[in-house]
Design a protein that fits this description.
The complex is a heterotrimer of chains A (326), B (409) and C (216). The longest helix of chain B is centred in the last third of the chain and has 43 residues. In chain B, the strands form 2 sheets. In chain B, strands 2-3-10-7-9-8 form a 6-stranded mixed barrel. A two-stranded antiparallel ribbon of chain B has the order 4-5. Chain B has 14 helices and 12 strands. Helix content of chain B is 54%, strand content 20%. With 409 residues, chain B is an alpha+beta fold. Chain C has 7 helices and 10 strands. The chains are: A alpha+beta (326), B alpha+beta (409), C alpha/beta (216).
């Protein structure tokens, strides 16, 4: 019987409760999305950090790579020697070019030639993309590499490095290489952490202010309604209901609203964070059960805080006088 | 008494006698508007602020132009040129550090030495700037403030010279003892360097030129236009495209404009840095955009419901006026006047709250002062008023409801 | 124009419920008509239709020669402010305006507020001294008198009153009804809805309505 009365009450007040539910669920979706994004943003940032490319440069002993690189790390071996190109002495690197470019997505290659000439070297020698050039007897067409690294002064040819002068490694765990003769490039790491912290804080502030805004909405809506329901509470008292029974009715009604809002909020959170992450970082959201629990708690908190107004109205001594009314 | 005076009197009475009802609406509009205004302000400045947050490391290097025929040189005037009015993107340059490189010797071991500004205050065309090695916030410096008699050790070098309070360093045949001020961890090749003041380096080498300028610039993420310029060259752009490219702070366009003011220089974009910076800015801007849309929804619901409540709790009075035969225009005027008054007061509250919140968030999240106060003022005034009017338009139907029903309330 | 109000075969339905079922009658200029009936008989509905606050489902209502039942919302509002004064059982004064301002409100709705005229109206109902009081500072009878002053300030031809003494004690009831008598002497056409036979005695004629039909 209680649930029947509660559902009838909710249906009767659907025009009032709809904006309340929306206000709370939108706010919750903001909080939920913030939480999901915080969890997932690490992944997003790691993904962006990968654009940094090789973060360890190793000079292997005896030119042997296999024992120098940890399993699971991405690596490319490079053999460097001097060579002659169009009468000038240059630094020549022989490596798996495709692997090299894949590891360093920030590098820009202009043209489709088979002889890669670093930008600085090209400018010095007056070489442009597509020019016919000859390196150590190998003829080909120039493609210009703009990497922003020392490779901009090199010529790079595709091939297998018989002995590696250096190994470029892309690893998630550069610390492993620190004891050896390796150069670890981690200049964006500090920036990354402070950036992540900054984003987390920002999301939290936004969520915080929106929670206040939503609370004010539902308080506003409820304030007027609580007074209007005095007659209803008067009728309940007149037929013999005590405070405990009326309280149970009110709390059940608001409990249902809280659950609906939390579920809607959870759905909106997932949709919102999915859109953001897939669009911007090609990553799926990282959900945890903790997030659903948090949303339900917040929703319940909001609605039960508001239900206090109704509870107070229902306990007023003059509520039965409302029946004398109009 | 004129009708306008009577209207003002009614509005004044309505808001002063029914203070609680009126204040409730004012607070709701102010809070919801503050949310929107704060977010809008942060969002409008987000890319710039995020770029600032990510600008703690150098993302470009200016080096002397080299060709087969000649090798040019750079000097201090080139550093200053980057911040002069002739440089189109001068306001996007956050830090510019001149560097003179030399090989040196410490305890018989060869070391790489860089002469730099540690932290230098500059006056360029009546504006003050502070540039220097220590202004790269993404690099981690621990130690005392270095001066001309100090060295700063790169992290890798520091491991080899551990425990030394001072070092004797030999450059170009001249030897000098300098105290170790601190250690700089950059996470890059610079960790292998010893840094001394540029003036000291000039003193030791007898030269006053520089080898490079490390630049940190605020950049905008690449889009199709920027990619086209990079892959196919700026000659492939139409005049309109070129103008659009030039007037957008891409890494490539900033590099181009630096070359305009430093004709002897060649600008190398540290692509792996800019690529990460751009990616992070892009990702976060999307986050902000989505949050912006959602909070707009929350704010609109808040304002709409509060105005709905305001009108509904005043319905009986409006119903009395309708029963007296008030015209539609006069009725709307009454409601609009009350809501407009609330919006105006909310606008003031919104501005005050927004200034504090935006400043707090800007400092706390981005570590910088929020600059766009005039923008904030405009938003604070227009947002509450606009939204209130929109909400009012939506409430019209409620005002036209059956007056008999209203009077039964 | 001898017939001030003509109600011709008026039907009013609310969904499946018929509040008025073919009501017809006329009210002469300067006449005081009382409409009586039990609760739910349709008398208030009928008054609301004559006032132009609502429109009939079918049938015609003519007031002062104008068919108000076919007017638009805005046209009825205009007609009402120029020709009809309404007095409600629950007074319906604006609580944040003084007695004088409540009367001036009716002038504002019509055209231009005039303090002196409004004071005159209060004088007519014996409340000049309470002009600056708020409704909460007035007794029920005084509030109703303010409501009457508000209803007559624009010199309407017709005055409609829905249970005007329903919330008043006997003494105040008498005062209010005497005011209505004076208004009738001034040539106003008055229609009063009541369930109180003592009020009906003041009128020229009484109509009885029951279950939406005129019974006598």
């Amino acid at each position: 019987m209680l649930m029947k009365v509660v559902f009838s009450s909710i249906r009767y007040r659907i025009r009032l409760y709809t904006p309340m539910i929306f206000a709370v669920s939108l706010s919750l979706s903001l909080i939920g999305a913030s939480g999901i994004l915080q969890n997932s943003f690490d992944t997003v940032v790691e993904k962006e950090m990968r654009k940094y490319g090789a973060n360890v440069i190793l000079k292997p002993e005896n030119g042997e790579v296999e024992n120098a690189v940890y399993p699971g790390d991405e690596w490319v071996a490079i053999y460097v020697k001097t060579a002659r190109m169009d009468g000038s002495e240059i630094s020549l690197a022989v490596t798996d070019v495709e692997k090299l470019m894949r590891m360093n997505p920030a590098w820009v290659l202009k043209g489709e030639g088979n002889v890669i000439v670093g930008r600085e070297l090209a400018e010095r020698l007056g070489i442009e993309s597509g020019d016919a050039i000859e390196v150590n007897g190998v003829k080909g067409r120039a493609a210009i590499l703009d990497s922003g690294t020392e490779f901009d002064s090199f010529v790079i040819l595709n091939g297998t490095a018989k002995r590696a002068t250096m190994v470029l490694i892309r690893t998630d765990n550069p610390e492993r290489y620190r004891s050896g003769d390796a150069i670890i490039l981690e200049e964006m790491v500090r920036t990354k952490f402070s950036f992540l912290r900054g984003i987390e804080k920002l999301l939290l502030y936004i969520a915080g202010v929106s929670v206040v805004s939503s609370l004010i909405t539902i308080v506003n809506l409820s304030r007027a309604d609580a007074g209007k329901r005095r007659k209803e509470f008067g009728i309940m008292r007149a037929v013999g209901a005590d405070t405990k029974m009326i309280g149970k009715f009110i709390l059940t009604e608001f409990g249902i609203l809280a659950v609906i809002s939390a579920l809607l909020g959870a759905i909106f959170s997932v949709i919102l964070s999915w859109i953001i992450l897939v669009k911007t970082a090609d990553t799926l959201p990282d959900l945890s059960s903790k997030f659903i629990v948090t949303l339900i708690s917040l929703s319940a908190g909001a609605f039960y805080a508001v239900s206090l107004m109704y509870l107070v109205e229902s306990t007023r001594k003059d509520v039965v006088n409302e029946l004398g009314g109009e | 008494m004129s009708p306008i005076s009577f209207l003002f009197r009614m509005v004044f009475r309505s808001v002063t006698v029914q203070r609680y009802r009126f204040l409730s609406m004012v607070i709701t509009i102010a809070t919801a508007s503050t949310l929107l205004v704060v977010l809008s302000s942060l969002y409008l400045n987000a890319e710039a602020q995020l770029a600032m947050e990510l600008s703690g490391v150098p993302n470009m290097v200016v080096e002397p132009k080299r060709s087969l025929v000649e090798v040019t040189s750079l000097n201090i005037s080139d550093v200053l040129a980057i911040k002069k009015k002739e440089h189109f993107w001068r306001n996007n340059i956050v830090n510019a550090v001149p560097v003179l490189l030399r090989d040196g010797e410490v305890k018989g071991v060869n070391v790489s030495v860089a002469g730099v500004w540690f932290e230098k205050n500059l006056q360029i065309e009546n504006e003050s700037y502070t540039f220097g090695l220590l202004r790269f916030k993404g690099w981690n410096y621990s130690g005392e403030f270095p001066d001309e008699d100090s060295v700063v050790l790169g992290a890798n070098i520091a491991e080899q010279l551990v425990g030394m309070d001072s070092i004797r360093i030999k450059i170009d045949g001249k030897e000098v003892e300098l105290k170790v001020a601190g250690v700089l961890k950059t996470g890059s090749y610079w960790d292998d360097y010893i840094f001394i003041s540029l003036e000291r380096m000039w003193n030791l080498t007898g030269k006053n030129e520089i080898d490079m300028i490390l630049v940190s610039a605020l950049i905008k993420p690449k889009d199709e236009l920027a990619v086209k310029a990079e892959l196919y060259g700026i000659d492939s752009l139409s005049p309109e495209e070129f103008e659009a490219w030039y007037c957008s702070p891409y890494a490539s366009s900033i590099a181009y404009t630096i070359k305009e003011v430093i004709p002897n220089g060649d600008v190398k974009i540290l692509r792996r840095v800019t690529e990460v910076q751009e990616g992070l800015i892009r990702a976060s801007s999307s986050v902000f955009a989505s949050m912006f849309v959602l909070t707009t929804g929350i704010s609109l619901i808040a304002i709409f419901t509060s105005e709905k409540m305001y009108v509904e709790t005043g319905m009986r009075f409006f119903g009395i006026m309708v029963a007296m035969g008030i015209s539609r225009q006069k009725l709307y005027l009454q409601v609009m006047a009350e809501i407009f008054t609330a919006s105006l007061i909310s606008a003031i509250l919104t501005y005050i709250a927004s200034v504090y919140i935006v400043e707090f968030v800007s400092r706390s999240v981005f570590g910088i002062k929020f600059e766009a106060l005039s923008e904030l003022l405009v938003l604070s005034v227009t947002v509450p008023i606009l939204i209130s009017l929109i909400a009012l338009a939506l409430l019209r139907k409620g005002l036209e409801r059956d007056v008999v029903e209203i009077l039964r309330w | 124009m001898d017939k001030m109000i003509i109600v011709d075969n008026v039907v009013k339905k609310y969904g499946n419920f018929t509040a008025l079922n073919g009501v017809s009658f006329q009210v002469k200029r300067g006449e005081w008509l009382t409409i009586m009936g039990p609760s739910g008989s349709g008398k208030t509905t009928l008054l609301n239709l004559i006032a132009g606050l609502d429109t009939p489902t079918s049938g015609k209502i003519v007031v002062k020669g104008k068919i108000i039942s076919s007017m638009s919302h805005d046209e009825r509002a205009k007609f009402r402010r120029e020709n009809i004064g309404i007095v409600f059982q629950h007074f319906h004064l604006i609580p944040y305006l003084t007695a004088l301002e409540n009367v001036m409100l009716a002038q504002y709705v019509h055209s231009m507020p005039d303090r002196e005229e409004a004071l005159n109206a209060l004088r007519l109902v014996g409340l000049e001294s309470k002009a600056e009081n708020y409704p909460s500072q007035l007794s029920g009878g005084e509030q109703q008198r303010v409501a009457i002053a508000r209803a007559i300030i624009n010199d309407p031809a017709v005055i409609l009153a829905d249970e005007p003494t329903g919330n008043l004690d006997a003494e105040n009831e008498r005062i209010v009804l005497e005011i209505f008598e004076r208004l009738k002497e001034d040539g106003k056409t008055i229609v009063v809805v009541t369930h109180n036979p003592e009020v009906a005695e003041f009128g020229d004629r009484t109509l009885y309505i029951h279950h939406g039909k005129i019974v006598r």
